[in-house]
Write a structure and sequence with these properties.
It is built from eight helices and 30 strands. By secondary structure, the chain is α/β, with parallel strands linked by helices. Strand 23, helix 2 and strand 24 form a beta-alpha-beta unit. Helices cover 23% and strands 31% of the residues. It folds into five domains: 34 residues; 75 residues, Immunoglobulins (Immunoglobulin-like); 65 residues, Immunoglobulin-like, CATH 2.60.40; 74 residues, Immunoglobulins (Immunoglobulin-like); 195 residues, TIM Barrel (Alpha-Beta Barrel). Strands 23, 24, 25, 28, 29 and 30 form a six-stranded parallel β-sheet that branches. Strands 2-7-6-5 form a four-stranded mixed β-sheet, with no helix packed on it. Strands 17-22-21-20 form a four-stranded mixed β-sheet. The protein binds zinc ion. Zinc ion (ZN) binds next to loops.
Length: 479
């Protein structure tokens, strides 16, 4: 009996549940299934985008409808994502339905997980014993920071160079190449100021120092060793040595020459004068010649030309002028064709006079005839008109003064030996006006000048430059 009653109760409970299901759950499910909604297929509430990648709003099917039928619809989006900037952005998808706005919002995270690229050229690599790496070309580019080549760090050790670079988001890229440890390069050493210095007796020598850099050790200026003494109370040549050694023992040395000189004695009363004159320049050795003249404070006279090799030395003419030498006129072309007639001669003379004036600002009237006033080569050009006899008078009439020479160095053909030039000049000196002819376009002749000066100064001569007042030295005119 009891069992029967229990069975009956269970049936009743089952019926009640069935009732609830049929009358409550089914309608609710039905409503849910048929109720129209705004759908986006595979919608994610939160998405991540890599920096610099492009972001596209949802592209899946977007529709309005229920579980059984959904009509694709047009929709708009609101909000922007700047993939060049790390951060969180919101994109809202909006569908306008019967005056109502239906929407879904999505969080878009822009993240940077990508390290910069690192491009290393293939080749042989070296690094210094202290780990410093030469300036090898490496390029590095980051999706966000763009060109980061300048941020690449390099370190050499254990037979490798490690290149590394970190972007602003902390992403690191590393690359290694096989490399050899070595330092065979000596430091570079640069003297401050002139390498040759001229000081008058008792002038103060001021050490200007030098700078040094090394491929491995960097700036080594503070470690330069300077040695050598300059005694400015005694004329002579002094040397100051500069030396720098890098950590590996590679050494570089340089020398500065300091010339201490006594003044040329302008006041010599006995008339023993030497006029050093140089024809046919300027040229490649004139600057060296000017250094020597400067060292001894000896003035000279340059009879300049404007042809062939002498072109391009305008600055040397200016230097000679500024250092107190006389710039005389030799010839513009230095061609004997100038002796064809007076016009051809003066056209050539005025051309060089113009050039010198353009450089120095001074109109020079001190001249020397090519071949000297005694030349006979002019006979081949003048058609028998005795051109030298005309010109020697004509130039003086026009206010010029011409100078020949009475001491021949032999450098025009007789010899190419420096010591022979010295001997020729010394033997040619006379007790009054010694007018020496040399050519500064000849290296061996320029090399003779220092010994000539030393001889002259130590034998009571005074070196002078030609001026408009200098005693005349003229040859016999032969044509
Ligand atoms: Zn000449």
């Amino acid at each position: 009996m009891k069992k029967k009653e229990n069975l009956k109760r269970e049936k009743t409970i089952l019926l009640i549940f069935l009732g609830i299901f049929l009358f409550l759950v089914v309608p609710i499910l039905g409503v849910v299934a048929f109720y129209p909604k705004f759908h986006i297929q595979e919608f994610q509430n939160k998405v991540q985008v890599n920096a610099n990648d492009s972001f596209q709003p949802m592209s899946g099917k977007v529709c309005y409808g229920n579980l059984f039928s959904c009509k694709e619809v047009e929709y708009e989006t609101k909000g922007e994502v700047d993939t060049q900037k790390i951060g969180e952005y919101e994109i809202t998808y909006i569908y306008q339905h019967q005056g109502k706005e239906l929407s879904k919002t999505q969080i878009v995270q822009v993240v940077d997980l990508e390290g910069p690229s690192l491009e290393i050229i293939e080749g042989e690599y070296y690094y210094c014993p202290n780990g410093n790496v030469p300036n090898y070309e490496v390029t590095s580019y980051d999706n966000l920071d763009k060109d980061v080549s300048s941020l690449v760090k390099k370190e050499g050790k254990d037979g490798k160079i490690i290149f590394s670079v970190v972007d602003s988001s902390g992403n690191e890229t590393k690359k290694e190449v096989d490399a050899i440890e070595k330092d065979e390069e000596a430091p570079s050493l640069t003297l401050n100021g002139e390498e040759t210095i001229y000081l008058k007796v008792n002038e103060t020598y001021q050490e200007q120092g030098a700078t040094a850099t090394d491929n491995c050790d960097g700036d080594l200026t503070s470690q330069i060793v300077i040695s050598g003494e300059v005694n400015t109370s005694t004329p002579g040549e002094y040397q100051v040595q500069y030396s720098i050694t890098d950590q590996k023992g590679n050494q570089t040395s340089k020398t500065r020459k300091v010339f201490v000189y006594a003044n040329n004695n302008y006041g010599t009363p006995n008339g023993k004068s030497i006029y050093l004159t140089f024809d046919d320049g300027p040229g490649p050795y004139t600057s060296k010649l000017l250094d020597i003249l400067k060292k001894y404070q000896v003035p000279a006279t340059f009879f300049v030309t404007d042809q062939g090799l002498t072109k391009g030395y305008d600055s040397i003419i200016l230097r000679a002028y500024q250092e107190g030498h006389t710039i005389g006129l030799h010839s513009s072309s230095h061609s004997y064709g100038i002796y064809t007639n007076e016009t051809t001669y003066f056209n050539d003379l005025y051309a060089i006079q113009e050039k010198v004036k353009r450089i120095t600002g001074e109109t020079s009237q001190i001249i020397r005839f090519p071949g000297g006033s005694s030349n006979t080569v002019s006979k081949s050009y003048d058609g028998g008109s005795k051109i030298m006899s005309q010109l020697t008078k004509a130039v003086e009439a026009k206010g010029f003064r011409y100078f020949d020479w009475n001491v021949s160095s032999g450098d025009a053909g007789e010899t190419t030996s420096t010591s022979k030039v010295v001997t020729n000049v010394i033997q040619g000196l006379n007790g009054s006006t010694s007018m020496v002819l040399q050519h500064d376009i000849k290296s061996f002749s320029v090399d003779a000048v220092e010994a000539i000066i030393q001889y002259g100064l130590s034998h009571g001569y005074t070196f002078r430059k030609i001026t408009m007042d200098t005693p005349t030295v003229h040859h016999h005119v032969n044509n």
